[in-house]
Amino acid sequence: MVGPVGSLGERYRLFFREFVRLARARGFQPFATREERNHREFHTSRTGFSYKVSFDKDGYFRVELRIRIDPGDRAENALAFDDLRQQSRAIEASLGRLIWYTKPDVQTHRIYARRTGIVESSRDELEELTRWGLDQLVKFQSEFDPRLERLRL
Questions:
Q1: Whether residue 19 has pLDDT greater than 80
Q2: pTM: predicted TM-score of the whole model, two decimal places
Q3: Contact in structure between 50 and 66 (CB atoms under 8 Å)
Q4: Where are the domains of the chain?
């Protein structure tokens, strides 16, 4: 893992290049995207959902399940979110406390875990974020993939 260098875009590119390499070694498949972004997305077991690993603008590093089933069907996205939300007690028993984010009339709903972290952190801190993020990605996949396959949409 590399420490902080260069521009913010370069730091994201270096961090996520290594993160994606390690995630691929665990069987995750990333979506194609520009490397200098503050996030990367990975496929789930079902179309319309993705796992996203990101640095947000508020100083957090997070792993999330994104629900965006069809760009034109907000109702179906909301139903999927509501179905998973009804299972929140069991999901959080496995994953710990999660943030369930939705607003009326939004297209994308999010369920995520987060911890403080910025891409400008030291090498040791970035390595710890990588370990935590990969661990969360594996846990999310284990917990959510079977549930996504059982959703009736």
A1: yes
A2: 0.90
A3: yes
A4: 8-150
